[in-house]
Write the structure tokens for this entry.
Amino acid sequence: SQEESNTKILPVILSGGRGTRLWPLSRSSYPKQYLSINKKNKYTFLQETVLRLNGIKNIQTPLVVCNEDQRFVVAEQMRSINIVPESILLEPFGKNTAPAIALSALMATKMNYDPILLVLPSDHKIEDINSFQKKILEGVELVKEGNLITFGIVPKSSNTQYGYIESKEEICKTNQSSEIVSFIEKPNKEIAEKLFLNKKYTWNSGIFLFKASTILNELNKFTPEVVDICIKSLEGIEKDLNFQRINNNYFKDCPNIAIDVAVMEKTKSGKVLPLDVGWNDLGSWESVWEDSNKDINKNTLYGNVFIKDVKNSFLRSEDRLLVGFGIKDLCVVETDDSVLIASKTSLNSMKELIKELEDQNVQELKLNKKVHRPWGHYTSIMRGETWLVKRLVINPMESLSLQMHKHRSENWVIVKGIAKVEIENNVSFLNVNESTYVPIGAKHRLSNPNKETLIIIEVQSGTYLEEDDIIRFEDKYRR
């Protein structure tokens, strides 16, 4: 029935963020939402965002909006929790939340129904899932009356890292919805302390609930250019496996604008609903430390870490032994190619540091040594001027593209599993400790024909070793 279709809830998961304040663990090539920051939890932020919706009445499979470069990471993370998304919508470049929501609402109406959109950032932590689900359903009833709902987090401190929402009523006391008065950018410490004491102010969670038709009407009213460009961007949209690509030529001209600014600050239909569910965006190493279990000296340790005479510190090792001795109030995060050492009091200025690293084009800011591909992943182990050693991990029953290189040859040594190797139409199967050579300019393909993981050491040799020296002839992933 029409009424039933109008109460369907379509989750729109916004997964385009960069999470730079959690560098060096989070990189632009593999940002925070695809990581599991807490070692106790096997699920990533993105996976948790989807899993906590299980059991909500009338909930649909999600529509995920992500960066085109991360499409296979999203697909793999959804597959591993047995979720087939409604779609994975690929943005060629981030244009903030208003265009992403406009695209999602337009796609929903193209499906011939007018669902309620539940817009969720992909990188938040919520402890009380039962209360969260109840609050969503409370919001659904308000949406049926034509309201646009944003969720305000009941603040636990005078935090300067979040924006605030001012409501007409003291919603932190009443626990009821209220009209929105204003949105406030991240305040300084003095203002934040005043806002924290006033029960009309909540943290801006970035979680929204509204009917697709309602948000499109409001976008048309206040920022029609966004809707016009998004309509054009969806014309002749390409379906590619589970992915949908929009028209880059139109979308590049779309205004870069948040939904708060585009609609929520201007609409007369906006309401804020208080949310007190153990929420944390874990947006900085300090917030990760605050959220973590600590020892008697208020230290949080992850990985291969040894300490002596250490207090009030966060030490995390991803790769090597990390030893802390005679230190306090420090944050140390080690990865295989970078180490961050910072006083905990300076972590709020990480954005400025990241900007400086960006300006100097520091590659470690963007790229990991471990690079994810649709067939598995590879890790760069050692590099010289004319050679590069990689460790390739190829998932069961997957294969690389049929390809060639103009500037490098490759040697492959099998260290685990069985490899199917195609070189210039010659097919062979290699076992552990066997190897082969791929000359420069030879067409070749590497496949894993079995149900166990295939691991290969690859030695590249040549005058140019970058990833753009790949000419593809056949590719099951349509790259």
The first strand starts at residue 9 and ends at 15.
